[in-house]
Amino acid sequence: MSHDHSIDPNNMPKDPAKATMEGKHKFLGLWIFLGGETVLFACLFGTYLALKDSAAGGPTTQELYGLGLVFLMTMLLLTSSLTSVYAIYHMKNNDFKKMQLWMGITALLGIAFLACEIYEFAHYIHDYGFTFRSSAFGSAFYALVGFHGGHVVFGLSWIIVLMIRNAKRGLDLYNAPKYNTFALYWHFIDVVWVFIFTVVYLMGMVS
Amino acid sequence: MGMTSAQKSGFGATLWDWLTTVDHKKIGILYLAAGAFFFLLGGLEAVIIRIQLISPENDFISAGLYNEMITMHGTTMIFFAATPLLFGLMNYIMPLQIGARDVAFPFLNSLGFWLFLFGGIMLNISWFTGGAPDAGWTNYAPLSIQSPGHGVDYYVMGLQLSGAGTLMSGINFIVTIVLMRAPGMTYMRMPLFTWTTFVTSILVLFAFPALTVGLFLMMFDRMFGSAFFDAALGGNAVIWQHLFWIFGHPEVYILILPAFGVFSEILPTFAKKRLFGYTAMVFATFLIAFLGFMVWAHHMFTVGLGAVANSIFAVATMAIAVPTGIKIFNWLFTLWGGSIKINSAMLWSLAFIPSFTIGGMTGVMLASSVADYQYHDTYFVVGHFHYVIVGGVVFALLAAMHYWWPKMFGRYLHEGMGQLAFWTFFIGFHLTFFIQHFLGLMGMPRRYWVFLENQGLDTGNWISTLGAFFMTFGVIVFVINMIYTTIKGKKAPGDAWGTGRTLEWATASPPIHFNFKQMPLVRGLDPLWIEKMEGNEKMTPAEPVDEIHMPNGSILPLIMTIGFFIASLGFIYQAGNSYWLIAVYLGMAIGLICMLIRSLKDDHGYHIPKEEVEREDD
Questions:
Q1: Which of B110, B386, B504, B517 is disulfide-compatible with B618, CB 3.0–4.6 A?
Q2: Over 70: is that where the pLDDT of B618 sits?
Q3: Greatest CA span in chain B, whole angstroms?
């Protein structure tokens, strides 16, 4: 049993994120956690679908949504998922610098997405008076999209802390699972956004 | 209860050890102790309810207090007694049964416990701060939205805290069972209690997030002025009912499946026969879990979902009787031809079979959506669910206490007191709840503060209250038994019953803190029994004696929980006074800083040297 978590470059494990027992536990644990998260978002989607037409005299979905900004947000988040894949690719090749670089790009894209979302919410509140309290539709919209935004904030904090913590010591078998679980989580956030884009915005424009 | 620690140490050190422990056995005992406390509290509330209903138009307690009493009884018993008591057993027993040295995420295990405990404390603080929640344990909107004061707020935040803890434990158990089984322990060699722990954890994983969302919406409506359940702004109160029962019905199976697992361990041990129909038992467990997610709307037959929806949910509900029936017959066939030893654990198990079957049959009656219009919200329903939850879950917990007590504490519970508690509780249980079916059929609604004279309800209610006193007596005897045993109980060897079949009986009583000196080699179902039948005194080891890697203890889970607890109090009171936002920010900061420390500080655990492992007897 080895107490040492450093990686021997001449004898690279196939997947450093799953080379230790702890890494395997984290990998499976996060997948299972995402199963629970799926139910959480499913319930929020269900609530939104039940209440989306209850505008209580306020703006409706067609009056509110603009696809331009939402398209930009979708592209930002989808691209960030792709860059996190590059980061994990470099992790498997034990190239720490490139992994940090691509994780950094992932975080920047996430921040850009978040900025757009804050702008979007501010726009709805100031120009339409559409708030969390103005109608059941408002409550359901901000709850669903806001929960997703909250997940983005959490993910960003997570990766930024990881990158700073490990900047000087490089990749080892102890921190590799941490990067890997972040990447999994980030993909999940991306998938949820694809559903929000479809169910909230696209369906909101046509109905 | 520090009898598991070998070295002598002062009170401070012992307390610190328990506050920082990540040992699954100690966390299991903490769950059991806290769950037992809440069980007594919920029981006290039940007795007060029954005293109020002992005679017509009684005024033992006021109508408002009665509403608080029924709400707190239900909430406490489901969330803070039954669930944690089962989680305590799972925590203690499951890793032993699969031959593991701890769970997959020991830190999360500790965090889960503290979140549950502080959730329970949060809920009960409401008694002292202006009134407990009073909208029923189901907390239906719009009643719960209208409920004045902060009682319902405490319900929301208390359940949110403990629900997060339960979800973590569920994930933890799944990963533990998938990845940490001893060599040779294939899935189809796992003991039934481990199987039911596994399936229950899957239910927790998919059911609790629905409650989380429901509680968030309730929190937003009550504390932040949103309009989810406010019809004036287009809200819809039925959404709460859906979310609550999408969680709530699987929750019933979260409680009963581990209970089934307990009986599936006890009956083979004391019948000296392997469990009949093991494969069918596993299959039936999965089927019940699957169907358990398809039936939530049977709690909502009278809401007006329409005939088609009602019919689908009615048929799905009735279908659950099939796998449950498979289980009942398998237990009977396990007993058939066995060399049966009767003791307290066995008495509770045998009493479970007819009691639970009665509850199951009234369940099928209730599943008929047409007839349900007659039964809905009457004492028939109260009788039904107490037959399944007391006759199923509580009987299982008491059976499990007698069965695993020697494993956990190294001493046998006193048999005479065990049987006295059994007979008084068993008779009291049927006295209390059997008559309630008839009270319900005669039209007595549930949750009413008083009933009128000369409507044929007087005698029935009197008998029901009498039964509650019998049950109280039984519980008191059991508590005395626990105290007596701790002081003077007979010492138990590792294989405490002599006929143990599964791996937990291959460890010492109580087990050493790393459970197994050497990983056992599992050669089939009931691995210890196989070894004993071949004349071996202990398990064949799967590895040489070597150093053992163990996780470090940590105080962070407790501090993190206290942070979220402070934040929850802040959320409750910030709606009326924005100074309380300070508590929100402070509490969240404490919680998040603890998470940050956990992330920044490497925690590699420690190794017990080979020499020290060799010194331990196993």
A1: B517
A2: no
A3: 78
